[in-house]
Amino acid sequence: METLLGPLEQEVMDVSWRLGEATVRDVHDQLARVRDIAYTTVMTTMARLAGKGLLERDTAGLAHRYRPAVSREDYAQSAVGDVLSWLLERYPEPAAAYLADMVDDVDGVTLDELRAAVHRRRGAER
């Protein structure tokens, strides 16, 4: 579950997704509006996110510019997949039972899509 972000990483990515391209100063200014945070903390976090492949860093100018390397939607899909896979590998019965309970709460369209996905998966396994 390496793709799950910590709270500060998530905040930095949220700002990065919103701004599209930003310097550390841009992100720091946004975060500093709602919390007390050091510039160096934001700088370290953004460097770490670049190391994880979630931000791209452009070092051509004086101030490094960062932009998201993945969309919010792609990240969310990957994170959900990682969590579900981890749960289903380690706790298959309770995880499957929970998912089945959740299916009872979804609308008809989502349930039809889920049935179609299961049908496709079963066909591919044969």
Structure commentary:
- By secondary structure, this protein is mainly α.
- Helices cover 67% and strands 8% of the residues.
- It has two domains: 62 residues, Winged helix-like DNA-binding domain superfamily/Winged helix DNA-binding domain (Arc Repressor Mutant, subunit A, Orthogonal Bundle); 54 residues.
- The chain contains six helices and three strands, in the order αβααββααα.
- Strands 1-3-2 form a three-stranded antiparallel β-sheet.
- A hairpin with a 6-residue loop joins strand 2 and strand 3.
- Helix 4 packs across helix 5.
- The protein is elongated and about 55 Å long.
- The two termini are 30 Å apart.
- The mean pLDDT is 89.
How does the SSE layout of this entry go?
Elements: H1 7-19, E1 22-23, H2 24-32, H3 39-51, E2 55-58, E3 65-68, H4 72-90, H5 92-103, H6 108-125
Antiparallel strand pairs: 1-3, 2-3
Helix pairs in contact: 1-3, 2-3, 4-5
Largest sheet: 3 strands, antiparallel
Approximately what portion of the residues adopt beta-strand conformation?
A: 5-15%
Element order: H for helix, E for strand: HEHHEEHHH
Looking at the structure, the CATH topology of the largest domain is: Arc Repressor Mutant, subunit A
Rg calculated over all Cα atoms: 19 Å
Based on the model shown, name its key terms.
single chain, 126 residues, mainly alpha, Arc Repressor Mutant, subunit A, three-stranded antiparallel beta sheet, 3 strands, DNA-binding, BlaI_family, transcription regulation, WH-like_DNA-bd_sf, transcription
